[in-house]
Amino acid sequence: MEEHRARQHTNTEGRNFSTAKIFAILDVILRVPPVFIVDALVNYQVPLPWQNQSFISTMITIKGLLVAVIMFSLSLRVLLKVYAVIMTAAILFTSYWWNEAFCNKFIDALEEKYTISDFILTTEFFIYLLVQFGYASVFTVLLSIKHLVITGITTYTLFLLPMMVRMTLPSSLEDIHTVKYISYLLSWYMSVGLPILAVLATIIVKVNTMYYSTKYALILVQHIIRNYGIHIFIEDQWRRLHIPTVLRVFWLTRFAMQAIFLTVMILPLEEGVWLALDSTKFWDIFTNLMISGCDSTLTVLGMSAVISSIAHQFGKLIQLILGADNDEDKHMGTVSAILFFILALQTGLSGLVPDQRLTRLYRNFCLLLTAIMHFIHNMVDPVLLSLSASHNTSLSKHLRVLFICISLLLASPWLMLHVWSNYRISTWLLAISAFCIEVIVKVSVSLTVYLLFMVDSYRSAFWEHLDDYVYYVKAFGNSVEFIFGIFLFGNGAWIMVFESGGTIRAIMMCIHAYFNIWQQAKQGWKVLKNRRTAVQKINSLPTATADELQEHNDVCAICYQELASACITPCNHYFHSLCLRKWLYIQDKCPLCHADIYEKPETSDETEENEDEVIDNANDDQVPNNENLRYRLPRLDQGDGNEEQR
Question: What is the pLDDT averaged over residues 569-591?
Answer without folding.
Answer: 81
